[in-house]
């Protein structure tokens, strides 16, 4: 905005002159003329019987003795009075115009009352009653300091109408232009090929004291030759202030415009002997052809407060000129809140989610000690069924009751997280409830305790109770964290599903395989329950071979010879195993390990057939004791996972010290989930708002990247690709 506004300040004397002759200009009538090839200022002045100096006074972009570019739109005063002035004063007409006394403002002959309707503008009302905006303000002084409001009653002056002259302006030569967001008088004038002075002449109701334009405001503009502005390609220009030590070579590189074109557009360069510091010149705006603006070919970034051109371009990995081509509004200056387009394949120090660029924020460095989160845990400890005096019985119940094992693991990890953030200066209020895995107990808790002031609720584990809590919490916009896999039909925007869904995990592994695939031989082994997975694999890899699974009563298996015929000796075989039947997994794993080239062609090779095993859903069947870990390691078994294996770490040591045992994966998840939640709430105590700007976060054994579903809540999209190598489960990194 600074560059453009400086030009306005330099033209302030011109605007002041228009204030003094404003009423006279309103009485004068004008027409427009589109310059034809070969026409000169003198020939046009003779055609309209107007002195050349008069035309020059209303069209600052042309000069005495200079050539006029074809299709330039000129504003021409018309009527008997203009002709008489031209004959009487000749070349001195422009001087006499500025010496005329300002006529006395006509007094209204009466008033009418107008009730403002929704979305009405001052300009629209002035056009309706054929008066100026200043006329309305003059008799409604409150409008000098406040905006129009629906229902407001204002006085409309009525004037005695004068019979129009016979040669009045032809309205067919004009069109109504609606001001778009962020447009300026400068940009609109250049769009139509006229000056700001001419724009003010054509729209005398515009304020002379300010250059403000309102979105939706209507302006009278000349029709372009042969058409209207709509759909036309017009040349726009940048107003550029020459900095120190600037030369034509640097200008050409910066704006991609030839130096002779710059000189042609700015004759003062030649007149002053070259580029001079502080000179304000016009630069043709280079148009980029972005195609259709959508998320298929662009990503988008919202400018943050205090960002500079330097910091922004360094962050986004793009030059300012490239950014300007895609975002012409930048010519008015960089402003917080602007949404910028970037190429789809743009790389930089950022993360992209749903085509939106997210800033990487270090939560540990962004803690606000004034925030004091309140966490509510609602988990099924079922203490009513435990005899805490009998430790052996309690230990056995914990081992055999998954909900209790998960709750205790999750909660113990959460306690470690609360201790950890306390050391960072974060104070946390905690309330814990035992909902006993029972909906009626959950309702009882909700009826007794007001959870409206909670920052977040973790749990419950059962779907019925989760729905009940989510519905109640939604009334106060309290987020509810589902800590376990939850296939839910909840259409509430306050639920955070922290456990990455099976469909996301499937897409993750298929994308990985697709990226690594060269000429491998893909085979799919899927039982009846896994037809969806089979279909997804086939869709991704149309050339995949499908091996039928035999399912007869209690027996399930595959045809070993049939599988052998599908295997390749030349390339590696990638076999997808899709089932939750541990017997089928054990059989397939055993067979795949046994394959050797001698089985297929004993005279050619003694080498083993190369096999790698995959699955899109590593369920608990793959952990059954009858399945050999050595065989899985030999096959480099690869799968998607919500969590990764935890090595020795400060968390593991601290947990062992406090609880006397190593943390299981539930405790690790409880720590990571709660630690992530508390750091985000310490940054801003509103999880919904934070999730819009925080990208992927990762901790001891889990990571989180929440995306808002348009019709539901927030879903974690983060996951890992794991493989078993040399009897160790390791994370695959690209």
From TrEMBL:
KW Signal (keyword) present: yes
UniProt-listed SUPFAM superfamilies: LysM domain (SSF54106), Periplasmic binding protein-like I (SSF53822)
Signal peptide (UniProt feature, chain positions): 1-27
Pfam family, one: LysM
Residue span(s) of domain LysM: 31-76, 112-156, 175-221
Entry annotated with the keyword Lipoprotein: no
Keywords, ordered alphabetically: Signal
UniProt xrefs under InterPro entries: LysM, LysM_dom_sf, Peripla_BP_I
PANTHER family cross-referenced by the UniProt entry: LYSM DOMAIN-CONTAINING GPI-ANCHORED PROTEIN 2, MEMBRANE-BOUND LYTIC MUREIN TRANSGLYCOSYLASE D
Protein name: LysM peptidoglycan-binding domain-containing protein
Organism ancestry: Bacteria, Pseudomonadati, Bacteroidota, Flavobacteriia, Flavobacteriales
């Amino acid at each position: 905005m600074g560059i453009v506004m400086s030009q306005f300040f330099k033209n302030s004397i011109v605007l002041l002159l228009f204030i003094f002759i404003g009423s006279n200009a309103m009485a004068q009538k004008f027409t427009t003329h589109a310059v034809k090839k070969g026409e000169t200022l003198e020939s046009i002045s003779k055609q309209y019987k107007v002195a050349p100096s008069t035309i020059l006074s209303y069209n600052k972009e042309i000069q005495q003795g200079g050539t006029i570019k074809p299709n330039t739109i000129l504003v021409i005063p018309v009527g008997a009075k203009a002709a008489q002035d031209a004959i009487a004063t000749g070349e001195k007409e422009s001087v006499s115009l500025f010496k005329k006394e300002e006529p006395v403002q006509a007094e209204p002959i009466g008033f009418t009352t107008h009730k403002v309707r929704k979305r009405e503008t001052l300009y629209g009302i002035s056009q309706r009653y054929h008066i100026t905006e200043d006329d309305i303000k003059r008799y409604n002084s409150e409008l000098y300091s406040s905006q129009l409001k629906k229902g407001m009653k204002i006085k409309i002056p009525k004037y005695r109408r004068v019979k129009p002259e016979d040669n009045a302006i032809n309205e067919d030569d004009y069109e109504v232009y609606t001001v778009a967001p962020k447009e300026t008088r400068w940009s609109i004038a250049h769009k139509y090929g006229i000056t700001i002075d001419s724009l003010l002449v054509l729209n005398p109701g515009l304020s002379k004291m300010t250059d403000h334009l309102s979105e939706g405001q209507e302006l009278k503009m000349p029709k372009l030759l042969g058409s209207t502005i709509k759909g036309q390609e017009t040349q726009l220009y940048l107003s550029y202030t020459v900095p120190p030590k600037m030369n034509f070579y640097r200008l050409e590189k910066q704006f991609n415009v030839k130096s002779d074109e710059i000189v042609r557009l700015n004759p003062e360069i030649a007149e002053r002997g070259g580029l001079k510091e502080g000179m304000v010149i016009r630069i043709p705006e280079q148009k980029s052809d972005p195609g259709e603006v959508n998320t298929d070919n662009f990503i988008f970034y919202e400018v943050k407060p205090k960002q500079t051109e330097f910091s922004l371009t360094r962050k986004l990995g793009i030059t300012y000129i490239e950014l300007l081509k895609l975002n012409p509004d930048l010519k008015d200056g960089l402003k917080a809140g602007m949404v910028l387009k970037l190429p789809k394949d743009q790389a930089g120090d950022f993360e992209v989610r749903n085509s939106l660029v997210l800033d990487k924020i270090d939560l540990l460095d962004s803690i606000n000690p004034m925030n004091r989160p309140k966490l509510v845990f609602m988990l099924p400890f079922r203490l009513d069924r435990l005899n805490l005096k009998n430790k052996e019985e309690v230990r056995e119940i914990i081992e055999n009751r998954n909900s209790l094992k998960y709750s205790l693991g999750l909660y113990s990890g959460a306690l470690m997280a609360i201790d950890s953030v306390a050391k960072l200066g974060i104070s946390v209020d905690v309330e814990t409830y035992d909902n006993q895995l029972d909906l009626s107990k959950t309702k009882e808790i909700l009826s007794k305790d007001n959870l409206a002031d909670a920052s977040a609720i973790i749990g419950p584990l059962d779907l019925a109770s989760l729905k009940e809590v989510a519905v109640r919490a939604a009334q106060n916009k309290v987020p509810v964290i589902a800590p376990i896999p939850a296939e839910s039909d909840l259409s509430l925007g306050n639920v955070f599903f922290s456990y990455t869904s099976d469909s996301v995990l499937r897409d993750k592994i298929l994308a990985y395989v697709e990226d690594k695939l060269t000429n491998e031989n893909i085979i799919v082994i899927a039982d009846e329950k896994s037809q969806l997975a089979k279909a997804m694999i086939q869709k991704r890899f149309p050339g995949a071979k499908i091996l039928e699974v035999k399912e007869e009563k209690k027996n399930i298996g595959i045809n070993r010879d049939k599988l052998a015929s599908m295997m390749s000796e030349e390339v590696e075989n990638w076999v997808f195993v899709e089932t939750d039947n541990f017997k089928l997994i054990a059989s397939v794993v055993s067979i795949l390990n046994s394959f050797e080239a001698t089985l297929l062609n004993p005279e050619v090779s003694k080498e083993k057939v190369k096999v790698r095993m995959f699955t899109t859903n590593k369920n608990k069947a793959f952990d059954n004791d009858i399945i050999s870990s050595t065989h899985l390691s030999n096959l480099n078994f690869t799968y998607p996972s919500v969590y990764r294996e935890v090595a020795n770490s400060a968390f593991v040591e601290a947990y062992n010290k406090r609880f006397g045992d190593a943390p299981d994966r539930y405790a690790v998840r409880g720590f990571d989930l709660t630690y992530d939640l508390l750091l985000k709430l310490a940054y801003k105590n509103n999880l919904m708002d934070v999730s819009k700007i925080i990208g992927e976060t990762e901790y001891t054994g889990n990571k989180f990247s929440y995306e808002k579903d348009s019709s539901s809540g927030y879903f974690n999209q983060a996951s890992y690709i794991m493989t078993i190598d040399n009897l160790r489960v390791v994370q695959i990194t690209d």
